[in-house]
Design goal:
7 helices; 132 residues; mainly alpha
């Protein structure tokens, strides 16, 4: 079995989901984006795994929203979250079916530290931990 860079794949999947949330991209636009932007950095197998995460995550967003909302502070709604926070949460929830809860949360926290506001990682850690 070929070695793949799961951390890189996960990060690129979050960015693609983020772009989908921002622009409501079509499947074709997402495919073009992944093929054009990631080919220099990722091999074919990694791109295919990234696509799998992206499209499976997008397909299940409606399932993930209630899970997230149930674990927000009472005065909060999902609309208060940034698009990047949502993208990280959606991918992390999807990946719970693929990797352990701890790995999913850890990677989401790392991405939040890199792409979100200063304390967003604490929030993401709390929400994902509460989802169980």
């Amino acid at each position: 079995m070929e070695k793949v860079r799961k951390k890189l794949i996960r990060e690129k999947a979050v960015i693609a989901v983020y772009q989908y949330l921002l622009t409501n991209s079509t499947e074709k636009e997402i495919m073009n984006y992944l093929n054009e932007c990631y080919k220099p950095r990722m091999d074919e197998r990694e791109i295919e795994l990234c696509k799998e995460i992206v499209f499976n995550t997008i397909e299940r967003i409606d399932e993930y929203v209630p899970l997230i909302e149930k674990n927000l502070k009472k005065s909060w709604s999902i609309n208060r979250l940034s698009m990047m926070e949502k993208a990280i949460l959606y991918v992390a929830i999807y990946e719970r079916n693929e990797v352990s809860k701890e790995i999913s949360i850890n990677q989401a926290v790392e991405l939040a530290k890199k792409y979100c506001d200063e304390d967003a990682y604490k929030f993401i850690n709390g929400v994902l931990g509460a989802i169980g």
